[in-house]
Amino acid sequence: MQALTPDQKRFFDENGYLLLEQFYSPEEIAEARRQMALLLRDPEAARPRVRFSYEAPDEARVWPLDPENPRRVWMIMDTPLAGDWWFRQFQEPRLLDVLVDCLGPNLDFHNGKARIKPPGYRSHQVWHQDWPYERHSLPELAAALTYLDDTWEGAATTTVLPGSHLRGEWPHDEKNAIPDEWVDGPGVPLCARAGDVAILHVLTVHKAGHNETGQSRSCIINEYKTHEAEDRWGNPCAFADMPLRRGGRPLRLGG
Asked: Phi-psi category of 254—alpha, beta or left, where left has phi over 0 and alpha has psi -120 to 50?
């Protein structure tokens, strides 16, 4: 049984993204926020292989402090290693059902991370595709962005260029950036609420927005791929290529 309606599936295929509104319940998001706060309040207490990126001191001191993110963490890599909840989170069956509908029946894990935008955060991530630095034999990858906070323009929203994935790999500079003048139109801001999930194709052109509010905005990002798409970049991330679905069905230990 399909997780997506025919209209949702068609929208993803034609536009390269899909916003699933209120995919997670308020109770589920409350627990996700609690788990995120444990990491942000005390990064040193996390498992050694969970990697944190911090805003540069000269930028961090300009903005107000969020007690939920006192170190102004802006990225956490290898979140599946952070604890049992994080390990289960990227294997959420409802989410895997959606990814099977988007990518195909043989699904593998690619990587897990979290993106946090502290108060006043100025994004340096311009128009780009994820494909140049996540290259595989086939462009059969997608990211699932789980929003823990509401976003809007000026509050950490991501902007996408609908249908851009259908044009294959775009020209880009040495930093994988696509200049503004090469992009047709302003794009569509994904103004998501806490509990929404956005699915983003690896070839979809998108950019990150600033956070002009006084609250950190957090998003869990898990990426998935088809089993047929072979790694071409040497993925070092935890649980890379971990099998998740075969023939659309969950895997069973021992058979």
From this structure: left
Distances (CA, A) of 237 to 76, 81, 140, 180: 12, 10, 18, 31
Q: Whole-model pTM above 0.90? A: yes
Among residues 76, 60, 34, 65, the alpha carbon closest in space to that of 216 is found at 65
Helices in the chain by DSSP H: which ranges?
6-15, 26-41, 57-60, 84-89, 93-103
Candidates 206, 103, 200, 189; CA nearest to 153 is 189
Q: Which two tokens stand for residue 72?
A: 């102004």
HSE value, Cβ hemisphere, 13 Å, CA-based, for 19: 18
| SS3 state of residue 203 | coil
168 vs 166: CA distance, rounded Å: 6
pLDDT tens figures, 87-137: 999 999 999 999 999 999 999 999 999 999 999 988 888 999 999 999 999
Cα angle 41, 54, 178 (rounded to 5 degrees) comes to 135
pLDDT band at 254 (very low <50, low <70, confident <90, very high): low
**141 with 229: CB under 8 angstroms?**
yes
Tokens of 184: 């047709």
Which DSSP string corresponds to 52-110?
A: EEE--HHHHTTS---TTSTT-EEEEE-GGGS-HHHHHHTT-HHHHHHHHHHH-SSEEEE
